[in-house]
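Dear all,

This email documents one entry for the complex benchmark we are building for the journal club exercise. For each entry we list the sequence lines for every component of the assembly. Then comes the predicted three-dimensional structure of the complex as a token string, followed by one or two observations. Please use this as the template for your own entries, and keep the labels exactly as they appear.
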Amino acid sequence: MGFLIELLISAMIVVGGVFALVGSFGLSKLPDLMARLHAPTKATTLGIGGMLIASILYFAFVERTLSVHELLITIFLFLVAPVTAYLVAKTHLHRIRARQDTDQFQLPPPAGAGKAGWATFEKSDKHSRTEIR
Amino acid sequence: MIAYATYFGFISIGLAVLMNLHRLIVGPDSINRILALDTLTINTIALFILFGIWQGSSTNFEAALLFAMVGFITTVAFCKYLLRGDIIE
């Protein structure tokens, strides 16, 4: 029983480390930002999930104490990673679109200024001529 | 066996932090640097958790939780500043 628990904890730590390494390798080596965004938001989040599972198992079976902090960190990180990816992608796309506009460098209008929602370009805007590559 | 796995985890997370620092220095745009900083924060949380397992003490989890919250708020603030030119408008 103890050997199986140790094997499970060690496997979780190794899997988490490998996934975190793969995520950071992709962040370092992929060519474009939209390709780079895939690596940390999925692989690194999965890696830290494995490490948190290993920590929960270690403190439950080896140290004989139940700790809830890891569960809080897990829930927070897994909720927050898509929001971060969305914000980074949105900022990148809006900056590309504002840079392609040859007249002047212009950021989208503030929230509530037009028919569109939070800080985005409208469909009838002059920015809709240029397509995002 | 847990000790060797923890050493392997330390080595891999250290290499990941070095790769994030490479992207943070080289990155051609500021949004790349923001993404590298966010990944660096996540790897720091992993380091805190591994250090807690290695020491056998659960005092590091408050620091990890603080890093998670502050890293998310930092990323959102940087993205909002680049997107709008202002954080709170």
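Observations: The helical segments of chain A are 2-29, 33-36, 38-61, 69-100. Residues 69-100 of chain A form the longest helix (32 residues).
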